Amino acid sequence: MLMDIPSTSLPKPEPPYVKGSQLTVHLHRPPPPTPVIRNNCINTTTDIKERRGIDSIDKALERCNRHPPLQGNLEKPCYVRLELTGPVVQVGDGRNAQVVVVQVLHKSEGFNTLKKEKEVQKFQIGDRLVAKIYDPLYFDDEEGSLNPFLCVDRHYTHESRAYHVLCEMQGKEIPKFYGSYSLELPSVGHTFRSVRLVLIQLIRGSNLSVMNVRAFSQERRQSIMRSVIDFESRVYERDILLADLFPRNIMMKLPQSTLDANSDEDQHPEKRLIFIDFAAAIFGRIRDDPVPPEYKPNLFLGQYVSPLLRWKLTPTYNFGDRVNWDWLPWLKTAFEHTIDTITPEMQLAYRDDYDYED
């Protein structure tokens, strides 16, 4: 497929997500996660023709109007007034999401009548949160190969659902989740376009991709990798495959020693890991491509699958030279306690992947 011009070269208004701007967002109930099927977010010939016809800002906005986000349910009485305070986390054209720090200015009384949900945390006026905004207008469509509207629908519905499924991990291994919302932005003429977003906890720290993790001792790096594998395995037990588990999506909180004299986080950085970005989460552990029953693998849904079976290969693709030790002997020692969870059926299914009895 021939590549078109980058999405950043298409005419469009400047992103409205600038420091000092204010947004009113309404609580939104997303539809179920969109199916994940091979090439289902790829532009069709019609989509490409439409994209090539964008020669003005109005045309770009009209395209957004023609492709609104999936409907879901809007809770109109429940709205929040937010101010973008900074710092900017990720804003600009050519981004898969606009990520900004916001402060809650106002919260409607409609929230007081909502049924309490354990999956959605409460917030107060004055709180500083992170807004992750799925705006297709500024999405990186990889030179026209991706359909930005299908992509943001997928990212929004999958991320929202992941926070619900992993609610017991909120505020611990993952940020607290403050709900899914919808935003109305001015479009062409007197029209408006809808954009979806989520509000999550503000984490003070840096992601592993920008940290000099090699400055840690090998023992510390091994502790970090053990925490990564343990988290991924427990998420997998909840039938979620993390398709985007990279250092950029793992944050290390600032140490709490200044707040808690009894904290041991300074000596144990693995205890400060927070996992973010679940837009690429795959539910049911596998894509939704149609597969004949006789070829469908036993995924052991709902069961814990030992890392001794699933983490055989040194994760150099994900974690590069951060892992520079003899992987298999370390893995066997680190997760020896999980051997008893391996059933004969699991052993048979993974027989070509790992000989854990060695």
UniProtKB/TrEMBL annotation:
<dbReference type="InterPro" id="IPR011009">
    <property type="entry name" value="Kinase-like_dom_sf"/>
</dbReference>
<protein>
    <recommendedName>
        <fullName>Protein kinase domain-containing protein</fullName>
    </recommendedName>
</protein>
